[in-house]
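hey team, just a heads up i'm posting the complex here instead of the shared drive bc the drive is being weird again. everything in one block, sequence lines first with there labels, then the predicted structure for the whole assembly after. its two chains so it's a bit long, scroll down
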Amino acid sequence: MTQAVSLKQVSRHFGTVRAIDDVDLEVAPGEFFAMLGPSGSGKTTCLRLIAGFEQPSSGHISIFGEAVEGVPPYRRNVNTVFQDYALFPHMNVRDNVAFSLMLRKVERAERYRAAEAALEMVRLSGYGDRRPGQLSGGQRQRVALARAIVNKPRVLLLDEPLGALDLKLREQMQEELKALQKQLGITFIFVTHDQGEALSMADRVAVFNTGRIMQVGTPEDIYRRPKTRFVADFVGSSNVLPPGFVEALTGTRRWASLRPEAVTVTRAADAMAHLRGTIVARSYMGSTTRLGIDLNGQRLTAVVAASDELPQEGDGVGLTFASEALHFMESEA
Amino acid sequence: MTALADMSGAIMPNRRGWLGALSDHFWRRPGLLIFLMLLPAILWLGIVYLGSLLALLIQSFFSIDEFSGLINHEFTLKTYAELLKPQNLDIIVRTVMMSALVTIASAIIAFPIAYMAARYARGKWKALFYLSIMLPLWASYLVKIYAWKLILAKEGILNWLFEQLHLTWLLEAWLAIPVIGGNSLSISYTGTFLVFLYVWMPFMILPIQAAIERVPTNLLDASADLGATPRQTFWKVIFPLTLPGVIAGSIFTFSLTLGDYIIPQIVGNSQFFIGQAVYSHQGTAGNIPLAAAFTVVPIVIMGIYLWLAKRAGAFNAL
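-- predicted structure starts here --
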């Protein structure tokens, strides 16, 4: 099957800095794909390579089977939603959205009709006459989205599109983006540093760190079966347990991860408890409470449902967890 | 120890006597501070600047008694009628044409230079750019113009260069063109044009460069992403967004050319420009009203120019 986007051994170096280092990646047509990683991990560079703003130092990139080395961005049937929206300040919303059609010499009436349809799709009909400066952040974000989809690109790239929005708006936009992707059937590639966003929206996630891909998989794979310490720690701040500790517990000398919500906290006197420790931190998070537990020098985090009978700081507790919850990792990195 | 003890209260003591009290007072009344800071500027702009401009405007409505040469202090439009006489209108048309051509040419030459400096020059290259733009401004204006007179003269280096390139015929063909030609470059409109272009160029480059630097690069990325070729990006994004800078530069080059009286006197065919007309009318001829009326012309032209620019949407991107 032809992949929507395929990167083969792609590297991009800026001087001695390896922004992207030997990356292999395949994105299937119609997929909602997330590139997740901390800032400076190379995920945005990866996106810019696909858009054509950067050229790879080595390796091959193809889009729907066609090699795009040396093909300028304006000849790629790929559109981008920029992190800070990059709306043209000298044009009103309608002309911003119709920009790509105007360049293709589409007749004015027709391109305005298409622009209006795209604005309707992002629920901004009637805003055509406004200037970008008169819109709120969320509205600008929608205009940027409308502008990128008006021309029906094969692949839509989104660079931290929700990063500047407040929490409530972000959650709403997450749902709308997913619905829009289903409706259009376009391949979405989505860059984010927010693991919750990546897990909730994407069909598959690639986790980036220091210019390399650490793991690619479904959100469930990434969350429940992290391959490396970095993935375990970055995606959902798992407890990463060192080999010595794991050996004492299971007899196997390997790095392992344990999700905070998989840990059950009981009374210290509980005879069934696997481990005993002391509560050293407690933060209330609404529906859950996060407990920091000291186990003779090994720190462990547990997330428990809110209840009136939670232990206080300094209390001794017992811990239990299902043995399947402990996940052994393949690599130490 | 004592310093630490001083910090223990909720309010720290005033450590600077009456100056400190004054600071506190200004802090509570920020309007007063702003007023005091603006006062010198208001006085300067209002009295020295606008006041004298108003006096000048009033002068232009007086007239001169042709027999006695005395100024008649009665309001009349007679001087403006004189301004529209063919020999004076010629001067205005000549000056405006020259200003317009100098402005257009300098914008065309300045834009690529400014673009290079804003987009590609970094670190010491940027410093070198500023130095090479500003350096000519540090040299005396008169020295530069006389230098140009030598460069453009029949025995000058430019003629020599054309000779070496076996292009003397080209230069002669150019000088044979009526109006813009002449005996040599240094006594032709072409020469005047070249010197104006050289002298005012920094005033066009710097505002354009500043305007280009303000255009975020991600707009250029977005334009290319949406399918714009570099040429389309220039005309649809870069140019509209930097137009205010071009207009700012053109205000400089246009008004400086409109008002200059030295360059056409040294390099050119001795036909008057507005500045020279003002100079001679207020000096030897003693016709202050006509000199004032001539001075009003550039003001009116600049006013119309800015109004047209605004109507054309040149400042929309601001």
